[in-house]
Amino acid sequence: MKNLSASDFNYHSFILTGIPGMPEKNPWMAFPLGFLYTLTILGNGTILTVIKADQSLHQPMYYFLSILAVTDVSLSMSTLPSMLSIFWFNVSEIAFDACITQMFFIHGFGVVESGVLVSMAFDRFVAIRDPLHYPSILTHGVIANIGIAVLIRSFCVVFPVPFLIKRLPFCHSRVLFHSYCLHQDAMRLACASTRVNSLYGLIVVIFTLGLDALMILFSYALILKTVLGIASRAERLKALNTCLSHICAVLLFYIPLIGVTMIHRFGKHLSPVIHMLMANIYLLLPPVLNPIVYSVKTKQIRRRIIQMFQPRKGHA
């Protein structure tokens, strides 16, 4: 009998899922998704424009916010091709190599976003703990190095993922559970042991997202300790208020992430539609809401945006 190699099993493409069990309803999602992507680009583009145009916003906090905005747009653009393909053009097939490429960028920018949130927590800690030396500690060079370190870390931890997937033989269903490619989604279709993939994915989650969450909590514990040591109640509230936007950004990132993880682990009995909605919320909600949160909660950005859209008054 002929021995079949992994390449004999491998598929050249996968089938993405729009609305599970209701493909005829896919067009109903086209316009809401288009609206969300438009909001993402406009919102984050406005944040970047405002920070670039206003010299008073050329400070470490806003440089990190710029990095977050670029990361949000990049993460959204990673899912855009397959989303448009399914919901706008009703084309659900994606080439194997294209799927792996999308997988790399989605996971990569997810790790980058987590690293940026840690950097922003460190920024808030320095600003509150040592405000007089804040600009001299977080110089342009330090911020650039932090940004480069976040990118390098993301590349290093996600780089093995495409190779781990490509080594697997696929002989079962070609249908993925989501409208974009994820590592944990693709490896379920393999007809060989995925222990290495599962172990590596667990290690990455623990030592990137998990460790980042602990570092953010530790930063805020130090921030709270510092704030409680401030004598004036008004100054305490002012210090805490500078952290509200970042706290909201952290919650927007980690709550959907925890929700998706819990549903994947313990919600197998739930409707596939719920899985689809949670997965899309996890990737689409933070890029849409982050610029809104920072526009509403950050006085300097809010004032500058209002000035941008107000008609210029003529001289008397």
TrEMBL record:
TM regions (residue ranges): 28-51, 63-88, 100-122, 142-165, 199-223, 244-267, 273-294
Occurrences of domain G-protein coupled receptors family 1 profile (ranges): 43-294
GO CC aspect terms: plasma membrane
Superkingdom: Eukaryota
A single MF term (Gene Ontology): G protein-coupled receptor activity
Predominant location: membrane
Keywords of this entry: Cell membrane, G-protein coupled receptor, Membrane, Olfaction, Receptor, Sensory transduction, Transducer, Transmembrane, Transmembrane helix
InterPro entries associated with the record: GPCR_Rhodpsn (IPR000276), GPCR_Rhodpsn_7TM (IPR017452), Olfact_rcpt (IPR000725), OR51/52/56-like (IPR050402)
Entry keyword annotation includes Membrane: yes
Membrane topology type: Multi-pass membrane protein
Pfam families: 7tm_4
Keyword Membrane attached: yes
One Gene Ontology term from the biological process aspect of the record: cellular response to lipid
Compartment(s) where it occurs, according to its Swiss-Prot or TrEMBL record: Cell membrane; Membrane
Family: Belongs to the G-protein coupled receptor 1 family.
UniProt-recorded name of the protein: Olfactory receptor
The species this protein was found in: Heterocephalus glaber
Underlying gene: LOC101725497
